Each structure stands twice: as C-alpha cells, then as structure tokens.
Amino acid sequence: MTEPGVHLSHWVEAAKICMTDVSTSSLSSGVRYCSDPPPTSGLWGSLVALVSGQNVTCVGLSSTPEGCRKIAAAMLCMEPEDAEGLSHDDVRDSIGEFVNILAGAMKTQLIDRDPGLTLGLPLFIDGMYESDSRSLTANVVCDVGEIRCVLTVLVGAIERRRAA
Fold first, then answer.
1. Which residues contact 13 (CB under 8 A, 6 or more apart)?
2. Do residues 142 and 20 make contact, with C-beta atoms less than 8 angstroms apart?
3. Domains observed in the chain
4. 120 HSE (CA, 13 A, CB side)
5. Is residue 25 within 8 Å of residue 36, measured between CB atoms?
6. Sign of the alpha-carbon torsion through 147, 83, 73, 82
7. What does the pLDDT look like over 48-86, one tens digit per residue?
C-alpha cells in the first residue's frame, strides 16, 4: 500500500511548467532553466504553502534584492530602470503576489493528484530557504529574462517518510 501525497518530482515538474507560464503572462519574460548550483546567501524571496490532508508543500522564488526589485517592477508594469524607486513593501508584496499566482497555477496543475489542495499566505524571506530532516527540497536555478532566480519546492513529512 502506498502513502497518499504528490511525489517531489511531480511538484518540481509542475513548478517548472507553471513558472514558465506565469513568467510569460505576468512578467512578459521567458524562463531558461540551468544546472548551476543555487546561491546560498544574499537572496530575497517569497514562499507559499500548498496544503491538504495528503500534502504539506511550499513553493518559493528567490533572487537578489536587485532581481526582486526588477520582478516587482515588471509585476507593476514599470520599466526595469524604475525598480530602484520601489519601496521594500512594494517589492515584498509584488514577489508575494507572483509566488501566489505560481502556487495557484500549481494547484490547478496538480488538482487531479490531490483535489484537497489549498493555498496559504505568501511569506517574504530574506535569505535562502532551508529544510530540515522532515522535508525534501529541490532548488531549480533559472533565468527569468535576465534575472537569475531560484525556484524552490519543499515537500513535507509525508514525502520524507516515503523516501526513507
């Protein structure tokens, strides 16, 4: 008998598909995925939980503060050179909204695998997301236009027990 829940590889696949779609529609930028290791410091980002009786998963996007400002400017239909004028609150809210849209797209993508998924609220993070022994993490480095980003998927306790 297998445990319920969506496997990490399915989450990552959905995250990449949805990241490409949301970046194109919300930022008018394509996404290029690469195999570079993710940076371990100097990042800002946002994290949103997708939770059900079967899954405890978070998706996040992070970049440098400058990269986050440029993403926020694109979300607000501003020119990249005007990004410096954005307040920290504007950047935080825009990155949170982007990741919320991404999580919503992932929920739609995975609804057949887990119809009970619900979205949490976006959390702004100053630094790299870290997991512990109760979760599995996948970090996918990508370029959104010219902005280097890290797409992160953290899958909780159910997936960790299955992997053991």
1. none
2. no
3. 8-163 (3.40.1550.10)
4. 16
5. no
6. negative
7. 999 998 888 999 999 999 999 999 999 999 988 899 999
Asked whether the CA dihedral 55, 15, 40, 121 is positive or negative, the reply is negative
Tokens linked to 152: 């992160």
Could you give the percent of the chain with pLDDT greater than 70?
Answer: 91
* Burial class of residue 131, CB neighbours in 10 A (0-12, 13-18, 19+): middle
Please report which confidence band the pLDDT of residue 130 belongs to, taking 50, 70 and 90 as the band edges.
confident
pLDDT at 161: 47
Task: Give CA–CA dist 66/19, Å, rounded.
Answer: 20
Higher pLDDT, 55 or 104: 104
Q: Which two three-digit tokens encode residue 81? A: 């050179």
| HEC profile of the chain | CCCCCCCHHHHHHHHHHHHHHHHHHHHCCCEEEECCCCCCCCCEEEEEEEECCCCEEEEEEEECHHHHHHHHHHHCCCCHHHHHHCCHHHHHHHHHHHHHHHHHHHHHHHCCCCCCCEECCCEEEECCCCCCCCCEEEEEEEEECCEEEEEEEEECHHHHHHHC
